[in-house]
Amino acid sequence: MDTDVTVKSTVWLERAGEYLLGEPEAQLLEAVERVGSIKEAAKAVALSYRTAWARIQTLERAMGRPVVRSRAGGPGGGATTLTPEGRELVRGLLELSKRVEVTVVREYRPAPALMQ
Fold it and tell me: Is 65 among the domain residues?
């Protein structure tokens, strides 16, 4: 069964029918956690700061609580981290995405015409 046709899937979360979080936002939030800055995280995932901040604000409004926590600069400098809820949200989405991808790949059966 050698074919160049592959199957892909996309998982996202919604609340009350409104988009909440998908892989792009999860990658942004992972980068925030890794680098400690929304500005640097935005660069890491090829977004403008304005777009990154808008996505975080939209997510926080939809969640009804913060997903990032910022500490103002000072002698040690400022930092932004994920809240426990933000970490759990990202972890849950990414784990679900991996499980769905494994299932989709396992279950896909290409049409005979695609195998020629």
Answer: yes
User: What amino acid is encoded at 23 in this protein?
Assistant: E
Beta-carbon contacts of 36 under 8 Å, excluding residues fewer than 6 positions away, are 79, 80, 81
CATH code: domain of residue 43:
1.10.10.10
How many other C-beta atoms lie within 10 A of the C-beta of residue 110?
12
Q: Which helix (H) or strand (E) holds 81?
A: strand 79-82
Please calculate the CA angle 78-81-84 and round it to the nearest 5 degrees: 145
pLDDT bin (cut points 50, 70, 90) of residue 116 is low
Q: Which two tokens stand for residue 66?
A: 């913060």
> What residues pair up with 15 in beta bridges, in sequence order?
18
